[in-house]
Write a structure and sequence with these properties.
single chain, five-stranded antiparallel β-sheet, 85 residues
Length: 85
């Protein structure tokens, strides 16, 4: 399988506070890119994460991370995105 680039927008919800992050990732498919993006945002051990509600809970349920969008990036756009992300 060939490696592709994906731009993934992640939402972090902690109580009433929400933040969004954008990550440029390399993966062979969209599903793996989304999973990698979620896990990379979490500080806890993978075994302690709770995959629920369309995302993942970290810190004993304090933070919830979810993927808002995942788009494959055209090869000619990768270098430009790498400069700015």
């Amino acid at each position: 399988m060939s490696e592709k680039h994906f731009i993934v927008k992640i939402q972090n919800r902690n109580g009433d506070h929400e933040k969004s992050y954008v990550r440029l990732l390399v993966s062979d498919c969209e599903k793996k890119a989304c999973q990698t993006a979620l896990i990379s945002e979490c500080a806890g051990e993978i075994e302690q994460l709770s995959f629920e509600d369309g995302g993942v809970y970290d810190y004993n349920g304090e933070n919830h991370y979810s993927v808002r969008s995942c788009v494959e990036v055209a090869p000619e756009d990768v270098a430009t995105l790498q400069r700015f992300l």
